[in-house]
Write a structure and sequence with these properties.
Rossmann fold, alpha/beta, seven-stranded parallel sheet, single chain
């Protein structure tokens, strides 16, 4: 696992940050992509030159390509792409009655389009490296949609589908594609979601219903790093549900 060259979109906050730090602890090198790369300052201060922050809005396909190309140049190649960036939490809330074309287009372009176009940009570099891994972040919402977040849930169901398609398409190149679907994980955005629902007189139909209790970002990061290791060399085109038994 040492010296893996990794890109993590949204890799400086919440689950993305945990994934970034797990790769760094395994002696990898990571480029994180954020709309505002200054949020990665503490990562850079702690890990030094092994982590680089670059700006990107993954809702813009042109930025996806320029970001991935710049990240690969900085890393000297590419072994792993983690498509983590997404609109989540309160920003993903909209009932059918409230839904606007702008809200729909923004969530779809970031949550689904960002993963597709970053993967598209990464594949030539992964081929040059002789193969690699693409990890897409899905969600329990793909199976159990959160109240008031139907478009978000739909994008995560779509992530599961494109992961299967990409897994088949890219297998001849030695590129594995796997999705990871977190359940109820304690992060800033989940807290914001519950607060927004409460302000509307509603409550989450996912939070605090997990047999093993709420998960932590490291629970997801450990799984992602495992899936990018040789120990998972026969895993592709599938989604790993990490939900503490919520859907059991």
């Amino acid at each position: 696992m040492s010296d893996q060259r990794v890109i993590v979109t949204g890799g400086a906050t919440n689950i993305g940050r945990a994934i970034t730090e797990m790769f760094l602890k395994e002696r990898g090198r990571v480029v994180v992509g954020q709309p505002d790369p200054t949020v990665a300052r503490s990562l850079i201060e702690h890990y030094g030159a092994r982590v680089i922050a670059l700006p990107v809005d993954v809702g813009d396909p042109a930025q996806c390509r320029s970001f991935v190309d710049a990240a690969v140049e900085a890393l000297g190649g590419l072994d792993v792409l983690v498509n983590n960036a997404a609109i989540t939490g309160g920003g993903a809330i909209s009932t059918l009655g409230e839904l606007t074309p702008e809200h729909f287009e923004r969530i779809v372009s970031i949550n689904l389009g960002g993963s597709l176009f970053c993967a598209q940009a990464a594949v030539p570099h992964l081929r040059t490296s002789g193969g690699g891994v693409i990890v897409n972040l899905s969600s329990i919402n793909a199976w159990r949609p959160q109240r008031g977040a139907m478009v978000y849930a739909a994008t995560k169901a779509a992530i599961n589908s494109v992961t299967r398609s990409m897994g088949k398409e890219l297998a001849p190149d030695g590129i594995r594609v796997v999705a990871v679907a977190p359940g109820d994980i304690c992060v800033d955005t989940s807290i914001q979601l519950q607060a927004k629902l409460a302000s509307r007189g509603e409550k989450s139909d996912v939070a605090n219903q997990t047999p093993l209790g709420r998960g932590e970002p490291n629970d997801i990061a450990e799984t992602v790093v495992f899936l990018c290791s040789p120990r998972a060399k026969f895993v592709t085109g599938t989604t790993w549900l990490i939900d503490g038994g919520l859907l059991a």
